[in-house]
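Format notes (please read before filing issues)

Several people have asked whether sequences and structure tokens are stored in separate files. They are not. Every record keeps both together, in the order shown below: the sequence lines, then the token lines. Line labels are part of the format and must not be stripped during preprocessing.
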Amino acid sequence: MSIRISKSKFIAGCQCLKRLYWQVHEPQLAAEPDAATEAIIQQGREVGLLARKLFPGGVEVGGASLDDAIRATRDLVANREVPAIFEGVFEHGGVLVRADILHRRRDGRWRLIEVKSSADVKEQHLNDVGIQYRVVSRCGIDAASVCLAHVNRGYIYPGGEIEPRRFFRIRNPDPASPAVAAEAHFPATLGVHHPRHAKAT
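Then the structure lines:
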């Protein structure tokens, strides 16, 4: 039986293989999120929706199942009239990722953007964009750059509607070598983090 793991589970495996094992094999044992965790999740959703306003005309991927979403993503990638894809779903080697934003450049290449609700770039964010780049590139996406969109610490809310272009900072984790540098920030061997190799000891 093949096992698919999500990006979040892969990142959990980077931090602790035992945690990955339990998330995949015994998910019912996980504690229910408390009010504080739910608030953080909701904040992340709202920030993600705000970031989409930076790319008018972008299309969110739908689909009743993951396989449907993967097919819908392929169709949107092939449609050159679509300027950006939100929540595109890709799978490679049993790892599933949802890309917050894929922005189609004029030259036909792509900019992969991961949206974060924090004001700083953290090590786990580099793992995050690294695994996404690995998967989408192996699905045929020619990613010219890999970026993090995070909250601009210097933004002052003036009241009224938030201006996305001032609210966010979009930057590459390593401008010298964007895509390769991002991938280098997570363990090179995916196999060691796959649930079939993780143990509950």
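For reference, the curators noted about this record: The longest strand covers residues 95-104. Confidence is low (pLDDT under 50) at residues 175-182, 184-201.
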